[in-house]
Amino acid sequence: MKRIIFFSLIALAILSSCSNKNKTNPLYYSNDMESSNCWNDNNTLVVGIGHSGKVFSKVTPEIPYSFTFHRPLKDISSKRVRRVEYSCWVNLSSTTSQANLVLAIDTTGKSLLWVGTPTKQFVTEPNKWVQIKARATIPANINRENEVKIYLWDNGKDAVSVDDFEITFKD
Known about the structure:
- By secondary structure, the protein is mostly beta strands.
- It has a single domain, classed as Jelly Rolls (Sandwich), CATH 2.60.120.260.
- Strand 3 and strand 4 form a beta hairpin.
- The longest helix is centred in the first third of the chain and has 15 residues.
- It is globular.
């Protein structure tokens, strides 16, 4: 029983942590789906053959939002964040997928910034892991209290697997 409680506490600490593990670049975040700091899983994690490792996020018409990075801009940098470069690896079940790699900044009931990068711009054949890359400029009028979110959104009918997010903010 003590062993179960011990491992449960360790898992809870890992899941609730929100720190950047990269000490050489504190504006860099990544997730290979084997851990979940600064991320919401949206009940999409599955075990199988991911791009790296055995865990990845799978989105479907029923659950259209992948594992999601979320963090207030003020917690990313003490300076104003001006740009962000982000990527993930996707495996599409169809080349006609309607999925987008999304960067969103919202305030209560209002979208301040939404940038969607269609996966079909990068994928030429189904059932193969392909890296999707995007970048965005964050307007100066965006309040640093607002939260930035990065995720894959599948607004189509085909399943999409996603793994290995990388995000670099620039101030």
